[in-house]
Amino acid sequence: MHSTINSHSHPIHNALSRNLIFTHGKGGVGKTVVSQAIALSLAKQGARTLWVTLEDPTLPAGEIKQVETFLWHMNCDFTSAFEEYAAMKIGVSQLTRIFLKNKLIQYLSQAAPGVHDLVLLGKIWFERTHYAHIVVDMPSTGYGLALFQSTYNFVKLFRGGPLHRDAQSILETLKEPQSTGHLIVALPEEMPLRESLELNAFLAEIFPQNPAAFLVNRTFPTVLQENQEELSPDSWPSPVAHSIEEYARKRFILENYNMRLWMDQKIPFGKLDFIPPPPTNSSHIVVQELAKQIQAKAYV
Amino acid sequence: MKQTIDDALLKRRVIITCGTGGVGKTTLSAAMAIRATLLGKRTVVITIDPAKRLAHSLGLETLGDHPTDLTPQIRAAYEKAQAEGADLPAEFTGTLAAIVPDTRRTFENFVTELAPNSNVAEKVMKNPIFQIFAKEFSGTNEYMALERLFHLYRQECYDCIILDTPPSRNTLAFLDAPRLLAQFFDEKIIRWLILPTNKIVSIGMKKALGILEKLTGAGFMTHLLDFASSLFEVQANFTSNLRKITTILESPQVGFIMVTTPTLDTAPDIQHFLTTLVQHKFHFDGVALNRTFGHLKATGLDSKNEDAYSVIRAIQEREEVVLKNLMRNPILVCAKLPELARDVHSVEDLFHVAMAFSPAHSTPSSTET
User: How big is the CA angle at B344 (ends B61 and A186), to the nearest 5 degrees?
Assistant: First the structure.
């Protein structure tokens, strides 16, 4: 699928128009629901979309399953991706089965750094031609970076062999703005906002031609401020609040104060409003609400 | 001022906090360390990833194995709070130090220590596979934290050690780390790998290695075999260290606390954590609920800001459901710590947080008599 890059549109819209979409961010920023909501919004527009989680321990692993019209899900796991890869490279035969069952091979494929990450990325990469969009919920910051970093290192360190060639092709695709979009998700809190800048610097190093888009999730509703003296959080004597009114007021001040970190660097970013948690365990409702916002804000 | 959390701090010499990224484990662990100090303990907190501003204000920016003494700052905060009439112990006798280990450097130290001579150590560290491995192998950071703990435990300079485990996507990552590394150091497999020409190696094994070489290229295989043969030389020492660490972790001197936020999807995670602790024969000291909203009172509300209040009320309602579920199961909640209105930037801030642990409830089965 050819994506049109419209210079008038929001950087997020731009990133979400690509074939491969990677959502990055620190643990706890709501990456899973946000990436799921992005995938749902794209599917609702009639584009064949695959939502990918990587070895999420809470979800069943393996097969691609259709979950809605135009929407599929895959919880990519190493074992099945590696089997598939080996079968592709050495053919489906008794030999392949023996090869994969070999204790030493099982050991190496788990222990050898890089191979694990490369196989996961490879699986996503091979699926890319079957869908208009693949939205990947990347593991939280450190682990997600390792996924690219070890593939990158693999290419640099180990020459020759099909794994090396495939790793190189994968990195080429991830570098191209026509094919791949990188979205960094944060919360309006100090640590996630700051780590996002570090993450961005890292991504810029390996994908210099393909800058990431920025999104702040769970921004609080506006709270009118009466007391101008309170506007700097550093002037508050204690970090502990005691009433709903005090917390709401301070929370709103703090968020805007924190987001200056990005604004000072002239980073254009999108925002998603805080969805009040549903009283029962149903991330489904949150995903639906977020998808509505993503469409209303024309991010897709 | 005594809270449930203090029971664990009095009972154990080591408290290990586990939890996924974003739950505020570091702040909670540091606040717990302050409580231990107020109980008169010589306390040290090993923290992996403190917020930049907090690290800066605590003088913890330089990574390393040297403990930074925070006692004077805590004493100042204690005296200030006492002057303001806070409910505090009459005397201040504890100490507090903090360590931010450099996990990468520690891993190199670790290999140097395990290696029979410096040639082997150098060979391992120069290997490109080791360089990736030291940074990325799941379990290394966790295992290095344990190594650090082991050293402090043996030194006997501290009577309360709080280990804030590395941020991970999965609460169990820390508990699984030793097993994962032990697998890596599996003697039988390394022996196969470094003796490929040996007659013992079966034809199947040779074939498998041949296929692997075709897939990855000869360069990778050479480095891998080289790395494995170096590993073989450090394997025996690793295994004996691991046994000693495991013995300490199983002893009643060590308690585990799971840090989580009061959301509904954490229930399976807690169950899983408990099951795994039992399997390992580790001691559970409860769930610490961080970022709670239940303490916020509905006073001075302005109808113009109803949107914001309704979000907070929804969070409070969910929190009540979570607490009820924990009570019903029953799972010990050892601590509740409020969501903070701003970030923690100083020892004095941390002191305020340490005083904000709210009375957590014990379940009937776990109430001590």
Answer: 85
Residue A25, sorted as left (phi over 0), alpha (psi -120 to 50) or beta, turns out to be left
- For residue A38, which of A174, A133, A179, A140 has the smallest C-alpha distance? A133
Of B170, B189, B268, the CB nearest to A104: B189
pLDDT tens string A31-77: 999 999 999 999 999 999 999 999 887 788 878 999 999 999 999 98
Chosen from A165, A245, A253, A256 to mutate, greatest number of chain B CBs within 10 A: A245
Q: What is the ipTM of this complex?
A: 0.86
Q: Flag whether residue A202 sits within 8 Å of chain B, measured between CB atoms.
A: no
CA distance B107 to B136: 12
Beta bridge partners of B42: B95
Strand (E) or helix (H) holding A137: strand A133-137
- Cβ distance B311 to A115 less than 8 Å, yes or no, reads no
More confident residue, B50 or A13: A13
Given A111, A190, A252, which is nearest B51 (Cβ)? A190
Domain covering B4-293+303-361 in this structure, CATH number: 3.40.50.300
Nearest to B342 among A26, A153, A254 (CB): A254
Q: Which residue has the tokens 């100490």?
A: B95
- Which residue type is seen at B290? N
Q: Where are the beta strands (DSSP E) in chain B?
A: 14-18, 42-46, 68-69, 95-99, 160-164, 254-260, 283-292, 333-338
Average pLDDT rounded to a whole number, residues B197-220: 69
Q: Which residues of A touch B231 (CB under 8 A)?
A: none
Contacts of B167 in chain A (CB under 8 A): 27, 140, 142
Model pTM score = 0.86
Residue B289: strand pairing partners? B260, B336
What are the backbone dihedrals phi and psi of residue B22, each rounded to the nearest 5 degrees, phi first? Answer: 90, 0
Contact A137, A23 (CB under 8 A): yes
Position B7 confidence tier, pLDDT thresholds 50, 70, 90: very high
End-to-end CA distance of chain B: 19
**Which distant-in-sequence residues (6+ apart) come within 8 Å of B268 by Cβ?**
A58
Residue-wise over B152-183: b if at least 16 C-beta within 10 A, else e? bbeeeebebbbbbbbbbbbbbbbbbbbebbbe
Three-class secondary structure assignment of A63-114: CCEEEECCEEEEEECHHHHHHHHHHHHHCCCHHHHHHHHCHHHHHHHHHCCC
Other Cβ atoms closer than 10 A to B81: 17
Order of strands, edge to edge, in the sheet holding A71-76? A65-68, A71-76, A49-54, A133-137, A20-24, A180-186, A213-219, A269-273
Domain A11-225+266-296: top CATH class: alpha beta
For chain A, which residues make up each domain, given as ranges? 11-225+266-296
Could A113 and B132 be called an inter-chain contact, meaning their C-beta atoms sit closer than 8 Å?
A: yes
Which one of A113, A163, A276 has the shortest CB-CB distance to B310? A276
pLDDT averaged over chain B? Answer: 83
Name the residue of chain B whose CA is nearest to A99's CA: B208
Helix pair angle (A31-44, A283-296), 10° resolution: 60
Helix (H) or strand (E) holding A188: none
Contact criterion met (CB below 8 Å) for A287 and A30: no
